Amino acid sequence: MIPKEVYEETLLSFLAPVRPFLDDPKVSEIMINGPNQIFIEKAGKLTLTDARFPSHEALNAALRNIAQYVGKMINEDNPILEARLPDGSRIEAVVPPAAPDGPDVSIRRFFKETLTVQRLVDFGSLTSEAAQLLECLVVMKQNIVVAGGTGSGKTSMLNALSSFIPDGERIVIIEDSREVQLQRQHVVQLEARPGDAKGKGKVTIRDLFRATLRMRPDRIVVGEIRGGEALDLVQAMTSGHGGCITTVHATYPHDTLTRLETMSLMSDVELPLSALRVQLGSAINLVVQTSRLQDGSRKVTHVSEVRGYHADKGFEIVDLFVRRFHGRDEEGNLISTFEPTGELPLCTDMVHSYGMAFPEAVYEAARVRAEQGPDAQPDYGQVGGHHG
User: Fold this and answer.
1) Is residue 83 very low, low, confident or very high in pLDDT (cuts 50, 70, 90)?
2) Domain assignment present for 379
3) From the CB of residue 201, how many other CB atoms can be counted at a distance below 10 Å?
4) What CA–CA distance (Å, rounded) separates 35 from 51?
5) For 330-387, how does the pLDDT look when each residue is reduced to its tens digit (9 = 90+)?
6) DSSP labels for 51-114?
7) Any residues with CB less than 8 A from the CB of 15 and at least 6 apart, and which?
8) pTM: predicted TM-score of the whole model, two decimal places
9) How many structural domains compose the chain?
10) What is the CATH number of the domain that holds 30?
11) Which domain range does residue 361 map to?
12) CATH number for 370
């Protein structure tokens, strides 16, 4: 039996051309477009490197060894590989014939250091005032969806929000590939897995979700919603399982609900669209929108509250915080502020009854809004984010 450490080192030797990037904590993604073109992402910006694999065969050999490491296969009959490297980094590979010019590989780095809320505040991803409001809403067991594009910082934000979950609660995490690093003591990690060539051994997100409901969870965290499991989560949220957190690929808060609606319809449960929309409007309390901006920075652009679904108006979504842009600095970086809108969450009275309070800036914005009248529309300039 080959010792695990020796096997892992042998595996990494096949990745020698990109090993320096795997060892560089500032590299967040490595993109291999065939053996002769390798890009890396640092600080949100893509750079073409001089690194090369000796040949297509050398790159294929690396992928076969990675597949063997995780008990999978990659070949013409199985041209897509989802796997993890020994350090936890996520790898997605597509080989011919599915990738005619390939193999094409993307390695999303896994960082042992979990980004805390304070670090996100220090980076300017959000403000301490927004963080304090989010803390109150997490404690109040509001159901939260973190939405954003690829590489916008959704998982980092989910991890950070988990630090607000009170000690003593049992949290069950469901993922396709282990990425969530919750900063809590009582955590149960569940992971889906594909079946073998004959489909045996397959465990889906939906399978794990049904099992989770019988495991006495205080909180359910789903790493990413991608399909019919959206309906399972929505129904859990509306049947007493508060405080759920998940991530979804979506560009704006309203798109988030539309995406969840579409994915819920992928379920095998027949549900009238009007009933589904009412459930969605009731289940989701908050959308935290993340974006990777044109300058490569990752920011929270909206904290928005969902206030139900109305047949005549659609989903009612109200921004609690929005990001306002003020041009660029001398180095080309976007200048922005993250500001309260003057809207108070529906659970404000409950927050107060628990002896908590929002930051003073939130109440001050509400006072200004009240003085201007209910019909006043604040000028936020250019609101939202541009994906890089």
Assistant:
1) confident
2) yes
3) 10
4) 9
5) 888 899 999 999 999 999 999 999 999 999 999 999 999 999 876 655 554 455 544 4
6) ---S-HHHHHHHHHHHHHHTT---SSSS-EEEEE-TT--EEEEE-TTTSTT--EEEEE---SSP
7) 22, 62
8) 0.83
9) 2
10) 3.30.450.90
11) 117-383
12) 3.40.50.300
